Amino acid sequence: MTLEQQYSTILNNISQNSLNPKVYDRSSLHHQKTWFEGLATLEIAVHNLPQQKQEVVDLYEELFSEGLDFKASYELDEMDYAFYWDKILAILSALAIHHTEVYAQIAFQYNETRRMYRNNAKFHYYLNLAIETNVPVAKAVAAYFYYYGINTEKDKERASQLFREDSGDWSVLYQAYIQLNEKQFEFLPAVIEQLKSSSDKKIKKNALILEGSYLEAIGKPEEALSVFEQSYKSDYSAFSLTRVAFIKHMLDNTHKEASMKLWKEAASLGSIEAMNYLGVNTFPEVYTQEAYTETVRWFSLGYLYNNAYAAYRLALIRLYVEGWEEKAIGFRLLEEAIEGGSLDALIEKAEIYTEGRIIERDEKMAFELFQKAAKEKDAPYAYVRLGYLYEIGAGPDGEKDAITALDMYEKAVEKDHPYGYSNAGRMYRYGIAGEINIEKAKAYFEKGVEQNIPFSITELAFMYEDGTLAQDYKKAFELFGKAAEGNSAYAMYCYGQYLQNGYNDGEKAPEQAFYWFQKGAELQEVNCIYETGRCYRYGLGVEENPDQALYYYQQAADAGYPRGLVELALCYEYEYGVNFDAEKVLNLMIKAAEQGYAFAQYKVGVYYMHGSLGEQVPINSEQAIMWLNKAADAGYPYAYVELGDYYLWDYDNLNEADRAFAFYEKASEQDVIAEGLGVCYEYGIGIDYSMSEAFKYYEMAANKNVIGAMYRLGNCYLNGNGVSEQPEEAYKWFFNAAQQGNVPSQYLLGKLLLKGKGVAMNKEEGIEWLQKAAEQQYAAAQYELGNCYLMGDGLEENEDNAMYWFEQAAEKGHERAIKIVGGNRR
């Protein structure tokens, strides 16, 4: 049965003779059926006015007080609501002739009805009728709306005029609301007491609401709660009920269920704020499409009754939530929210154009929208984003404008916006808009720290770390920790670095470092993902685990993180937890190299230079030189060494050995001393001959564990080249190099042991070292081993064995071996 049919039945059941407007009280009117019975009674009574006028007015007041009309109608379908709407307008219009205060009620109905019935022109028409007939509340409401530009152009001068024309309690009340909104608290306590003593019960009711709002605004939530509870109990105020629920929830999260119940009751009485709280608090923690149903229900109800915030939240769901996505509807909702004055929606639309989400990036449109938010709403965040757009050259003239960007950031600072502090601080720290100003940067970052803004905290930490301010690792450590505790993923990485390396007080704390790296990894911070992998790889603060190391390295590599790509490549190269895979090694290294990562460029160059990855990656000097030059251009010292070796040892028969010295010298400027630098001095290649310089560089390189330099230094001591002859030192360096696989050193070490030169004679050990070198096809060692067999020196004399080793040496071009083998053959 439709509402129209039900209402017709109710009318027929009401006898005019038994008409009694007094029988309906507020508690009974909370039931929809009873409310419509009351409305039918009112309709009949209105047609009999002026009989029982006061009783009729009283019934009207009960029916349309504290949202009871909303409670009776908000669940109606479209057809029933249309009947309801037409019916109440007809009744109220008839009653207004006899009781002019109803003109204000009609105006409010047009302002607060469902969006399809909302009519701003009629709102103003009936409000003006109320003003003309001296309805006390009308002029005050009109002044308030003019002051804030609600349903009209903002006109504070007109608002002031209307307030001056009316010195009554309603005018005082609405001016007090303005003072409250603008945090002008000084005179409010006296005003509240004045209004509470009013003879008008509606004023007294609103005075309690004002008092609760004032107490909440000045940071006294417990006292505000008490006042709102009093207001709710005495007047059943939907607003007070909403605030009771909010404050209880804010003070103690365990009250959420009770708060939800109160919000539902307040929503049924027309509190859009309560509907929005219900929408927010039913937002699902874990995604499923069904989980959003309740959230959508509450925001849809708020949207139905014209709330811009509800439209904005619905827009976000329609734009971004899987299963609910309908982009066209989302954009329409966003536009409607903007038309309704939602700053959030305006900012969201601007962000969409800035970031190119959903639709094509349009920085010009984004700029216009942020400019609108700044101009019309004086929105601090809009100034921040305008600053960013000026900074990247997306302003009106398309040129980067750091000076205007800084001006925008400082406008945000004036509004106490945290990102204003962060960005203005950054501009001054790095001199982006002119000269560097460390004091201003520090002051802005410190304000950001007070507001727990991660960027400000970490930047101030870096200033203490790098000596921009008086270097203080302890302060830097504390700041990184503060930002990490505040859930800044990048700060977790920095904090972990301090803990892992003991930068703060020298005490390393690898377990704590691992904790923060892993926490940052959970937030998808790529540095932390990489570091977590490294901790598992090398057992830093956690037990070594190849599978976990590879898991995190793969994540870092998938994110394109150069160090992650390199470490994963090295795992495949050295078979750490995976099989060797030359193709993966090369591809991963090239990806890192293409991002300008110098070590990766060097490694790719080495792979191509030496064919060290096997047949799948053959020697390619052109590719090798290209990548090594890139690494060298980036200043990577070992790339200089590799290029020097290429020219010195003339891999491609270019006969350009003189070019080698410059590369070795550049490497030495970074304290990387190559064997080749000494060779250049020893043989006068690219530099004047100087055996003393050659010895100096051999010694420097040998002390840095360069194996070839150890061998050459041993030779210098053995033969007195660039230094006095010192066979004991020669033995030491040959021994060090021989143990690390240097074949010439193994040969010479064997000879020294056989002869007892520079070391006690030990023919057995000497033969062992000669044997090692000979088996590695070193001709001089093969020849010497042949002599030992021939002469019985350290070995049992054996001519066949001697000839075997002489032949081996001869095949490699050893001249003395050739003579022996050749003579024997004759």
UniProtKB/TrEMBL annotation:
Pfam families: Sel1 (PF08238). This is SEL1-like repeat protein. SUPFAM superfamilies: HCP-like. InterPro entries: Sel1-like, Sel1_AlgK, TPR-like_helical_dom_sf. It comes from the Bacteria.
